[in-house]
Amino acid sequence: MYRGKSIEELRKSLDSGETTKEELFDKANRLAHYFQDDYNSFVTIIDKPKFKERESLISGIPYALKDNFSTSGILTTGSSNILKDYVPVYDATVYKKLKNAGATLVGKTVLDELAMGGTGTTGHTGIVRNPWDKERMIGGSSAGSAAAVALGIVPFSIGSDTGDSVRKPAALGGIVGFKPTYGRISRYGLFAFASSLDHVALFSRNVKDAAIVTDIIKGYDRLDMVTLKDDGKKYTDTIEDDIKGKKLFYIKEICDKELYKDSGDEVLFEVLDKFKELVEKCRQQGFIVEEVSIDKKLLAAIYPTYMCISCAEATSNNANLTGIQFGPRGEGESVEEIMFSSRTKGFSELIKRRFILGSYILQKENQEKLFLNAGRVRHMIVDKITELFKEYDGMILPASGGIASKFDASSEKVEKLSDRYLILENHLAIGNFGGFPSITLPYGFVQDMPIGVNITGRIKEDDLVLNMANYVEKVTGYKDQYAKVGDIDV
Q1: Chain segment 414-444, per-residue pLDDT in tens
Q2: Is 165 a catalytic residue?
Q3: CA of 154: how far to CAs of 11, 83, 209, in Å?
Q4: Catalytic residue among 59, 79, 80, 141
C-alpha cells in the first residue's frame, strides 16, 4: 500500500526496486483525482511530471505545494480570483530546492484567499473538507496542503504559517505541522502576507519526516535578506538524542479547567483532560514538565495584536494587486476607477475587510495608537516567553481547545471574547511573534476527531524542538496515521 507510508518507507521501496518513481507518482496522482471532488485539496493537479534523478532521501517522493509559492510555468493563484490566471516566470526558492532534490510535485493546493484566514473556506475554487469528517473544516490557511497529507495522497506537503496556518490544520487533521525558526527557510517566491510573521512550514505524518524535509529546504538565500546562515546541522542526526532532564512548561491560564468551568464545553474539558494525561506520560518518559503563570491580560492581547500587525502588513504587501499589474482589468475611465472595480470584484468580503482594517491602522493619525502599540505588546509577549526559555527548553500546550468545527457551526460557536477564543485558540501566534520554532503533532481523538499538542522552543534550536517532539510522538503513539476514507486501493 502507498497511502500512509512515510518518506523513509517509500525511500526503501525505491532503493530496493520494489517500486519506481513513476509508479509512486501515478499512485499519488490517482489519489489526488479520486479525492478532489469530495475534499478539494488542489487548485491544480499535475498530470505530466518532470522527474529528476538525484541522490537525496526525497528523490522520487511525491509532495504537494501550497498555491502561494511561485512555480514557473504552473498556475499560481493564491486561491484568489484576482490571480486566477497568473502563471509566474520564476520559481520560489523552496520549490527550486525540492526540484533539485528530486521530489515530484503532485499539485498546487487550495488555501484561504491570499493565506488570510483559518477556515479553509475562502479559496476561489471552493471549500476544503476535513478527511476525518467531510462535514467539518480542516482549518487554514494551508487547508489543501493539510488535507492532502491527511488523506494519504502525499507523505509531505509545503505550506506557510503566519499565525498558525500550518500548525492548527495539522492538529485538526491528525498530522504533524512544523514551523522552523523565522528565516531558517527562504521565503523568496512566497506571496507575502505579513512579512514580519510569515514562515515557510510543512506537513508530514511523523516528526522524522518533518526533519528530513527541513534538512533539504533550510539554508541561507541571498534572495531573501532575512534568511539565517545555515546552522550546519542535520536534524535527522539528532532526532533520537536523549531528552532525559529536558524541561518543558505549560501555561496555567491556558490549561486550567477551572477557567472554563462555566462554559459547559464538554469537548474542551476532554481536550484538557487528555493534555494533562499526556503531560504525565511525558514526565514518565524523562521530561521535566512544570506549570507557569502568565498575566492573562498579556495572553488576551495575542489575538488583537496579531490582527493589527497582520492586517497592516497585508494591506501594504498586496497594494500591487490592482488589476493593472495583476488580475483581470477592471472597468473605469481613470486608474483609480479601474483599481476600485478590479479590487471590488477580485477580492472576497473577508479580504476586503482585512484591507480596510489594515488601511485604517496605517493611517497617520492611528499608527501610534494601533500599529506601533501592537508592536510594543508583541515585544512584551516575546520578552516574557524568552525569559521563560532561559529556564525551560520548550513550551507544551494544546494546539486548540476543541475539534474541527462543522461548516454549519451555529450550534458550536465560541464566544469571541471568551478565554478559550482569545487565548486557547490563538496562542500559536506566539511562535510567529518571536520567530520561535514550533511543531504540532497528534495526541488523541475526541468524538472520533483528532486533536493536537504543540511544542515551541528557543529560536535557532529547531533541532531540539524536533528532538523533543520525536519523543512526545513516542509517548502518544499517533505516528503515520491518515484518514482511512474512500475505497480506492493503491
Answers
A1: 566 677 888 999 999 999 999 999 999 999 9
A2: yes
A3: 13, 26, 12
A4: 141
